[in-house]
Amino acid sequence: HVQLVESGGGSVQAGGSLSLSCEVSGITEGTNCIGWFRQAPGKEREGVAAIYTRPVMTYYADSVKGRFAIWQDNAKATVYLEINYLRPEDTAMYYCAASRGSCGLRASFFDSWGQGTQVTVS
Q1: How far apart (Å, rounded) are the C-alpha atoms in residues 35 and 24?
Q2: What is the pLDDT of residues 70-98, one digit of tens each?
Q3: What's the rounded Cα separation, in Å, for the pair 12 and 119?
Q4: Region class of 116: left (phi > 0), else alpha (psi between -120 and 50), else beta
Q5: Which of 50, 72, 98, 105 would staple 35 via disulfide (CB 3.0–4.6 Å)?
Q6: Segment 97-106, tens digit of pLDDT
Q7: How far is CA 60 from its chain centroid?
């Protein structure tokens, strides 16, 4: 069983930046993809970025390309989501998730989820 803990959310002004962290622990053997998703009130969960770990490949939603960056630190078992040029429409709860199979932006690929970290942009 994989455990994921997100951190780094907060309240920022439009144009600002945040760095979200997803710490991965537990039985991680077979985990080959970590994704970041977000869900705003009244909206469906949206995949924003994912990273396939070996070899490293990244996936981004069109809405965040050029502003979001996903990367991993294997030594710290942590995947980061750097968010730049924040917009009010980026306001959402951000979740990370782990997949032992396919990698991409579909929530159905992922079978372990964290509790989320809130990002609010004003």
Answers
A1: 12
A2: 999 989 999 999 999 999 999 999 999 99
A3: 8
A4: left
A5: 50
A6: 999 999 999 9
A7: 10
